[in-house]
Amino acid sequence: MRKIFQQELADLGDDIYAMSLKVAEAVRVAGEALREADIEKAERVIDADNRIDEYEDSIEAMCLSLLARQQPVATDLRLVVSAMRLSATLERMGDLARHVAYSARTRYPEHVCGGPMFELLSDMTHYATEVAEDLTRLLDTHDLEIAEGIRRKDDNLDNALKRSFELLNVEQVELKRHEVVNSVLLTRFLERLGDHCVSGANRLEYLVTGDLDSSVTERLGGESFVD
Question: Which helix (H) or strand (E) holds 7?
């Protein structure tokens, strides 16, 4: 029975990693769709979101089954519950990538906006792609230096969001009404992608170390592990 349980845990880890690959691809292609006003890439991301949702449903069902049948404790329990939380985080990232793709599709064949705001959004898509790919590498390697790097790189997205407020409120960049709406929504979507990558990195760090001291708790948003 123990050997079967360990194989199921390994399969669970493989599914989380496979899901993260799908999500990282969705983030990358959504960014390309936005920068290039490419409706085919936007449609790819929107269609692929169903597969990401299926991964979450499958992982959640597997975790609940393991909890019911095996009643894991200690490290094994941490792995199962972390997998549930990580799959939810990845699913939300997929949703955000889909939102970006929707915006690109809605404005096709035009870009969502122009000028300095478009340049800022383009930069943000690159930043979001980078942290999403880093999260995938972290899930594959469990290298905690990558987790720290994700937290540092997320600052690029946070700073870009602040810069968008300056462009809209202080510098009064000339934008049409729909461009303002697109800019506000997209900068927020992309900034939240970074936040979810940080959340995933924090949970993976806890999975690896088992350390839930005050600093880790703060990075997890003040939640207890089972909240």
Answer: helix 2-36
